[in-house]
Amino acid sequence: MRNLLTFLFILITSVSFAQIKFEPGYFISNNNSRTECLIKNAATYNNPVSFEYKLNENGDILTGKINDVKEFAVGEGYHYKRFEVNVDKSSNVPGKFSTKKDPEWKKETVFLKLMVQSDVNLYQYENSNNTRYLISTGNHEIAEQLVFKEYITRDTGSSVFVNNLYRRQLFMALKSSNLKQDDFERLKYNKDSLMKLFLKYSNQEGKTFANLDEKQNKSKINLKVNAGVGLSNLNIKDYLGGSFDYKSSGTAIRVGAELEVILPFGQKKWALFIEPNFQSFSDEGTADIKFGPDLVLKTDYKIIQLPAGIRHYFFIDKSK
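Above: the chain sequence. Below: its structure as tokens.
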């Protein structure tokens, strides 16, 4: 029973608190001036209307607002660009589908997350209800949403129809001998399928291509070596005859390592970890025997532990 409880204890979810990080980046203002700075964790953004930054490590936390900033980028993978776009606000929740085939447009000013940078750029728009994909061509000043919409009709009631206009939009935008009509006819409206299509499109001579989504969704590995000493207590008692009672204390040596893998989803708040460690304790002493010679007791205790589990981080802002 004791071993079972120990096993369950080490296979628990670990909850950790991490300080919000500010990473190297830049932003471009409306007057086209570029400011190098430190920007708050990019992984926490979907499609923000503002972002927090510092001009240096010890500087005050400032706010960049969508009305003042044309684009901003953090590290190698996170790049957001401001557009005024028509976004389809139709519900994609079963049971709440629209009865209209055409998108229900709403014009918004948004920061779009850049996924693919090429002569045809791919962007992602994401909020709590919907994920939409958009493209831009030419000078990339205008973004167009790729239309995918599930809807019902008043006549059929529960039958679901699909507006797959995005396939034709991409067929017209991505002109390449590498792509066949079948590539578009089977194309699904999700990130993986779209990324594969753009990768195939870019795989031609003279084509420049940057896969920012791949950089955004890399797993991160952290390795930490642990070592230390602790206080161990040993208590041996003769419960049957009561002839002796032995107590001892000393230092126990502990060495180990922790391997942590930050998972590339959930805003990188989830991680898997394993923490093998070795502990050792040695002791020698004499027990006073009531009815006989003293008893020499030697203790040599060694154990290998292999804790593993899932860790969830909560980011805290120390400035607040």
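The two ends are 45 Å apart (CA to CA).
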